[in-house]
Amino acid sequence: MNLTVEIWRQAGPNQDGAFETVKVDDAEPQMSILELLDHINSGLLHRGEEPFAFASDCREGICGTCGLMVNGRPHGPSQHTPACQQRLVEFADGDTIKLEPLRSAAYPVIKDMVVDRSALDRVMEQGGYVSMNAGTAPDADELLQGSNTAEFALDHAACIGCGACVAACPNGAAHLFTGAKLVHLANMPLGKEERGKRARDMVDSLESNFGHCSLYGECADVCPAGIPLTAVSAVTRERARAAFRGKDD
């Protein structure tokens, strides 16, 4: 495949950035977006030039590290698919592909396509955990939970924290991410101990670091894990529940 690849180059967070154009004449349709970047970087290193910086880890679609913008869309053209699983077969010979970092005021650029997504970590630090007594593992049937509730919770636990929802949102909101965490933990037996405190603290952090939600729906459209838009409602619902029940719950 012959491709024209426009790639964002930015030396640091306080530097101006710009796109650099790279011509690729030997791309393979089965390559992923990240493998295309690997291929380009290999050529740059061979010529003694600086490679493009981008983030990746497992490359199996489960770690959430590989977020970037592909032709203005988080991750790429395939719906519910992370960048590491987006294949060049989605593009035609001769196409132009524009690669840039996830765009959000909450994600300052570190270098090239690597951004600081610690604002998501700050939300998780406020309640993304459960309290339990230390000791030996409980029996499997000690904490009962219906299969439907468990499946519902685990469907929302599938969120990989890539942050694409924030980049897709015109307001830079992280309600899909936060809502998924709140739904997951509110429906697990061990997550109910600090349910109210979790909702108050996580929503406070959410509102301090991200924009407001206007239910545009772009977040759910690009989510690699397929988290439903209904997860957004958990932010208001869980926070209202905590306010109604008071500080003891």
What does this structure look like?
This protein has 249 residues and is of the alpha+beta class. The protein folds into 2 domains: 109 residues, Ubiquitin-like (UB roll); 128 residues, Alpha-helical ferredoxin (Fumarate Reductase Iron-sulfur Protein, Chain B, domain 2, Orthogonal Bundle), CATH 1.10.1060. It contains 8 helices and 7 strands; from the N terminus they run ββαβββββααααααα. The strands form 2 sheets. It has a 5-stranded mixed sheet. Strands 6-7 form a two-stranded antiparallel sheet. Strand 3 and strand 4 form a beta hairpin. Helix 6 packs across helix 8. The protein starts with a strand and ends with a helix. The mean pLDDT is 94.
Throw out a few tags for this protein.
Fumarate Reductase Iron-sulfur Protein, Chain B, domain 2, Beta-grasp_dom_sf, 8 helices, elongated, 33% helix, alpha+beta, 249 residues, Ubiquitin-like (UB roll), two-stranded antiparallel sheet, five-stranded mixed beta sheet
